[in-house]
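[scheduler] slot 2 assigned
[scheduler] job type: sequence-to-structure, two independent chains
[scheduler] chain ordering preserved from manifest
[runner] begin chain α
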Amino acid sequence: MRPLLRPTPRATRDIAQKLLEGINVDAGQSGFALEDSQQRAAVRLAAMGAEVTVRRRTLSRKAPRSLYLHGPVGRGKTWVMDSFFAQLDVRKRRVHFHDFFRSLHAGTHGSNAGSSTAIQQSVDSLLDDIDVLFFDEFHVHDVGDGMFIARLLRTAAQRRIPLAVTSNYAPDELLPNPLWHDHFLPTIEAIKEMMDIVKIDGSSDFRRFPASGSTPPQGSESFKAGQIVTPGTPRQLGRLGLFIPSEAQSRVLTPTTQPIVVKNSDPELLWVGFQELCGGLTSTSDYLALAETFTTWVIDGVPSPAEADAASAPAWQRFSNVVDVLHDQDITLFMVGPGPLDWDLDAGRSGLPVDFARIASRLSLLGRSHGDDDVREEAAGS
């Protein structure tokens, strides 16, 4: 048996300082310096990392405090956490919200589907053999997902496993639907009890306006190769190597349990209408399953968000989930609609998801193709 070592405050401080220096060096190598709120988060992460490291070395039963980083889109929450994750030398696991729920739901399918035992087994497998869990893009829109989250938090606390979480939502803003928010209040209070809350709220959206000289974020190159196309004429699409499918190419796909009518499903390319993809009963699990097969997506018939009532609120929420999945899985997206497809709308517009700012930030990475570009080119050549 490894002998127990007594932790010293100096050893803990030294580890924290080394972790903090590593994050700042990482930022410098990427071409920017941490903003004040990012630095505060880095300091707190480093302190947490030191506690986790000392605990592992000394076999202490004292659990470090968990950490909840939140703030507007594009402020560097995930970047800071990922840099810290790379520096931390302990048993660790990083999961994304959508991937977590996909694996959780997959683990509860079968003869014990939906049972408390199956849910607990899925949560246990996530927490097995780790010292700390990193959870990115934490959000709750569904009361059922809220129940899974509550189970995860309870089990992590029982096992004394700290969490490092990023979210666009402050804890009190989780599960914002007024029909269900009160049901989630006990879990919100648990989050505030077991986690230190740190806000990252710098003035710059680095996803839209990178710091001068900074290295572009990695991991989304295929997504950024996509285009927002309006109004989607055959000429426009043809220039992008896209050719409107014939009716004979239509197929019915069943990625999980929900059938989806698609216009084309050639190898690697999926072409589907907005209404078929988002207007029915599809779920994030469907989108994740499709993303495993198709590396390029064309979604046509996308309504203008300026006319929020052009689609139902659930359809817009599913659309947000689609964009999240395609961005996180680095899938090339061509979005086609009559326009205007302008996502920079006032927050809180009726019918659109409350987290639409995150979607707008991600869609800002895509190029744009406008119908009047063709008109200008023809005029220049005449």
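[runner] end chain α
[runner] begin chain β
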Amino acid sequence: MALSSPGADSAAATTGASPEPDTAPAGGAGPGPARRGLLPLLLLGNSAMYALYIGVAGVLLALQVEDIDPANKVANFGLIAGVSAIFATVFNPVAGALSDRSGRRNPWILGGGLAAVPAMFLLGLADTILLITIAWCLGQAVMNVYQAAITSVVPDRVPLDARGKASAAVGLGLPFGSTLGALIGAAFSEDYRTGYLVFGALVAGAAVLFTACGREQRLPARAPMPVREQFAAFTSALRDHDFRWAFIGRALLVLGYFAVSGYQLYILQDHTVLPDGMKPEAAVAVLMPLTSVAMVVSTILGGYLSDRFDRRKLFVGASALLSAVALVIPAVSTSWTAMLCFAAVNGLAFGCYMAVDTALVTMVLPKAEDAARDMGVLNIANAGPQIIAPFVASVIVSFSGGYTALFAVAAVLAVAGALAVKPIRSVR
């Protein structure tokens, strides 16, 4: 999974960058009937994607790894998650570049979505840690073909004056998909092979519906940029003082967040004292909707209030500090009530952070004409920490003998992320 900034596609509107030719009718009029229909398709397509990511990686994969080698489940799961995240990070830009060169998105959405079914089938058949790693890497590869293409739909097909709504539809896919994924994962915890196929079918169905109902106009094919020029272009954004600190803050908070969330099932198994009769996978199905609702509420309120008071740094820093407070709760208490409080408070913190921090970043982009490219650089701060988070978490848990130290380290990272926005000069 490569977490994307919900508001990334609205960067061009914020900074004044121009859309690609043929991406929207002249004049930037409000969306017509086809575009109004595109928003629910974007919500559906992204929800299905996040449902697979959360349900597979957060529930079924963790159970499968535990069944094979219970004693080494933490280290094995960290290895699988880390290696597969590398595949995700590589395939996402490669697939995006290939779809750019073809001038089409729908074939890549359809191909990646349909390929999810055999990938999930193979994952269900895997019976060793090596085979699980290979199968999940294949799953990450095809899912990132799908993700790269569907992420590019907003700048391709939505006029500037409607990108805020489109970005909201994309962003809501995370809490909706997370809830759906947790519920499906819990329902098939005793039969994860069938559960894998359900997730594959869900993505494939969403891909078929999206490409059948979402009309596409072929765009001019884009010439590939030499690797040296691409590297120079990406690193130039990080030489800007304010953008660099925004990048660092995002990377620190995301690292702490995913170090904990990736091990949620094992935390519920080995750290939390659950109510009598409640299984850990059922607990995930309770916590994830709670977090998702909190995220939706704080995303809306955080965005509105930061606009109302024109204080981005205040809300970004406060939400990062609130995330640190949330992480302290399960560190000092192993009760189920503590985990419920953690899920709600962390959802409030992360939802507000992602909404307002994305707005902040759009205000510190070095050049308006490079807005889309520089938002892509920001997504390295999303994807990169997700690669190393499983390794970091497995080392901390293995050496400390428990999850208390993991919560403490994640809280420190959240505080560091809050402090990172202080040096930013151009935004209040």
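[runner] end chain β
[qc] chain β: Confidence is low (pLDDT under 50) at residues 7-34.
[scheduler] slot 2 released
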